[in-house]
Structure formats: structure tokens, C-alpha cells
Amino acid sequence: MNYNNIVVATSEKEKANIFAEFFQSEIYAAPNNTLPFHDQVSKQVNIIRNRMQNTSDIKWKNITPEEVKWHMKQLRNSATDPDNIHNRYLKNYTSQLIDHLTLLFNSVVDDKHQPSSYRPISLLSCLGKLLERIIKQRLLLELNSRNILPQRQAGFRPKKSTMYNIVRIERYVKSQLHHSKIRRHTAAIFFDIKAAFDSVWHEGLIYKFNDLRLPIYIIKYLISFLESRTATVELDNTLSRLFTLSSGTPQGSPLSPLLYIIYTSDSMNGIPPHIEHGLVADDTALWTSSHQLTNLNDRLQQPINEFEKWCKAWKLKLQPIKTELVHFSIHPRKKYKNPVQVKVENITIQPETSTRYLGMIMDNRLSWRTHLKQVETRIAARLSLLRFLNRAAIEPNHNIMINLYKSLIRTVIIYGYPVLLCADNKIWDRIQIIQNKALRMALGLPHYTSVDYIHRIANIPRIKDYAVNLLERAASTAASSNEMIYHRSLQDILQASRTQHKSIYLRLHRREQLSPQVLLDDKFFRSAIRLQHRSTYHSQLQFVGILIIDNETQQLTYIIDHYNYRLQQFRQFQLNY
């Protein structure tokens, strides 16, 4: 192994040091000042540092035992850290431990008692992460109370997920292609920032802390958190020399994602209002539409230039090779003489037929077929694992096998359900086939076992019904968090998915349970009473009768009368038949 004209390394120690040299010089090196603005920021940060050292009035509100206890309950069962302290130990806390940790954390943040040996800012320290969670919660409350974080930033924020921006893009594209009076072309560009978290300019971040007027005690802690950090590389149980991290936020720290969001909070300030944008941590996307391709190029190039200027000012580097452009055309099969194309860092970006964005493969027709192919490939090994585990056990526990299916497979095939519910029913038929296979393997049933039987034994709903239930919950969550535009988008998808649901007659034929409102509908009654659906309809009417009996106290007399009328009609049909 060799790097930067260093003599070929043969021992593990030499190899580890080469990695350390590479990380220090290529990844975590302090970026050079190339603009007059950079010098201004450096001077301002020196003033901020001096002010922090000479400031005694911090207005620090001590960390309380209740705060420590609450965050300890939220800890994950992660691996043991270098201090040999496991999160499981911390979760089995005593009141004495809570008191000691509260005293320790207050001594770390309090300006009067801050010895460097007490700074638990190690990336792998469980105690350090616990303190970082407490600081993160306080910082988040401060930012939310002042509405500082950008609304379109969905990364690492409570009650927001990656689906937020995926749904926004999908709704926007379809509204331009199908629902506008004049159908419009849409183009979206998905940026890639080189080593985004590791390239954060420390002085620039401190400058923004001060610019946002954060509490002084938080700024002082964050300066201590960022600066004078060291790291080492472990290679085959051999440690390299220590090296200093001159840039970046520590990956794995609870604070790092929030610090990156603060750092990029003004990245879209120069974007024109007619340009839509979405942010999920370091994943940045811009999209817009026009009825003419030439206008589309100009409309998209302007915000790209603004974003390039911002990245240059704040020492982040775009990667044009990994930046992708997708053209959602009103004529997807047509080859245009002058196709959509833009420039990033003076490199021309040509449109792709599909791109991966936030775990979803988005094709230029929004059919999601490419995404489903990737899902099928991804879960093939997991299906084989289910089959192996079922056959390896003498008496496999069905509950455990079903839980394995839910965690290993269903989480993968259901990801992206809000936009997948807008797709063709053939997509859901293929997803349902995956669930059928997985349940048969988990339960050790032969391939000819009926679908109704395996779902009844496993006590699992059909996959599209499960997705609709998830969408209902997501819509209610969006409403409770005052995301009304996102809530309306989810409601529109929910309404459309219900109308596109499998035929209720087919569901009746498959003996699926139908709602009382459907069963008592006059048009459905006349259709269902024909041919082979009589016995099933009668049994489900009896089920409706049970529901009505259970809800007599809810003043449902009009439904009871309707039910009795339908039952009388059904008996008359039986006599005539």
C-alpha cells in the first residue's frame, strides 16, 4: 500500500498511518480561504472566540435529573464504546447514577468548571452521546421556537421523514403533466456534495451560530465540541497515530445532523420563488416546469448558479459527475433535438431516465417499475434466509418467523408507500406476490397454499391495505404538526388509492371483509346478489348485524332499519331463487 509518494507500507501500523494521513489531508483538512468573504468570516470568528472567553454571564440553565433520565430511556442498544460502557448499562440506571451524571454534565457545560478531561465529545462514547442528546434537544427547542430551520428541510426532524420531499416531487410532476390546463415539462436536478458532513467549515459554522443569536452557553459548548478533535484509524487491531480533525462534524454524533442543517439553513435563500426545492440533510434537489424546453433550461440553470455560489462561499464542493438530472416529459418516448441540459461547475449534465433519491428509484414516467425491480433483487437473499431459518429449526416459532418477515422484508417492500399508492395496480400485485412468498416461507407452507389462508394464519393484512393504513396515520401526523400542504397531498393520495382499490365484488368473491357502508349500498346489493355471491353476502350481512347490535347505544336506528330492509330483500331473493 502506498499514498502520496510514501514508501510502500507492509506492516499494519504503517498501513493505518497511511489511512490517517489520507483522512487528515484529504477529508478533514481545513479548507483554504479563496474569497474575501472567507477572510471576513475568519476575523469575525476570532472576535467571537475572544468574546466567549471573556463572557461570564452565560445564563446557563442546569441540566436536571429528569432530563437525563428521559434521554437515557431513549438510548439504543448500540455496541460497547472504548470506555467499556454499554447503553444497556445506562438504561438500567439507579437514582445514584442519575445524580452523578447530572453533576458531571453540568460541570462539562458550566463555564466555571470545564476541565478538558471532562469533555465527553468522543464519537464513540456512550456518555458523550447522552450529553449530546440533551444539548441537541435544547438546541432544537431554541431553533423551533424561533422558526429558524427551513420548512423544506425534512432531514432528522421530528414528525418529518424522507417521504416529505418525495411526495412533493411526485405531486408536483403529476400536476404539471396531467392536471394542468396546459401540460408542462418538468425537470429535476439532484445534487451530490462531496463528503458533505466531513467538509463543514468550522469557522463558517461558528459564524452562523453567532449570526443566529444562539444562547451563549450553547455556542461555547459547540465551539468546544467542534475544535481540537482528534481521531485514529484502527486496522486489524492496530491503531494509527492521532490526527486532528480540522473540518467536518463528527459522524455518529447525535448533534452532527442538526449542525449540518444549521450550516445549510440559508442555502436556498437565493433561489427564485418559482423554483421548488427539497432538502433532506445533505440531499438537495431543485425542480421546476415549463411548457417549452428552452425556457425549462433557463429556469433551472439560474437556481443552479445561485446554489453553486453559495457552496463556493461556504466551502462545500459539488460533484457534477454524481449530480443527476431527470426530465419528466409530456412525451416520454419522444427524442428531442434540443433536450434538457444544464451545467454544474461548467460540466454539462444530460438527463437520465431514472435516478435514486432518498432510497427511491424515480424514473421519468413515475411508474416505479425500476424501483420495484431493485426491491425484488434486494430481498431475494432475505427470502432465502427465511426459508433456511424455517427449515433449520426442528419446531420453528411462527411468531418469531412472522416478526422476522416484518422487520427484514415488509419494511423494504413498503418503503415509499405514499407514492407507490399512486402507481398502477400491477405494482401492488407484484408486491403482494412478494408478501405471499415470504409468508409461505416463514410459516413453512407449500407454494399452493391459498393466499387467504396464509394471511389468516399469520394475522397480517394484505400489503396494500397495510399501506393505506400507514398513509392514514401519516396524514393525521401531518395534520397534528400543522403541515397542512403535505396533509392535503396525503389526503389526495388516500382518496385516489381508495377509488383505485380492488373491485369490491372481487373482494367479496375472495371473502374479504367489507365495511357496513359498502354492504348496505343499494347499487352494490343488486350486483352482489347475482350469481355466486349470495352466501358470502348473507354471511357478511350477519356480520354487519353483529356490529349494529354492538353499537345500539350510538343511535344507529336508521342503519338498523336499512339492515333489516336489506335482510328482508335478501330472503325474498332466496325464495324466488
From TrEMBL:
Residues 92-362 form the Reverse transcriptase domain. InterPro entries: DNA/RNA_pol_sf (IPR043502), RT_dom (IPR000477). It comes from the Eukaryota. Pfam families: RVT_1. This is Reverse transcriptase domain-containing protein.
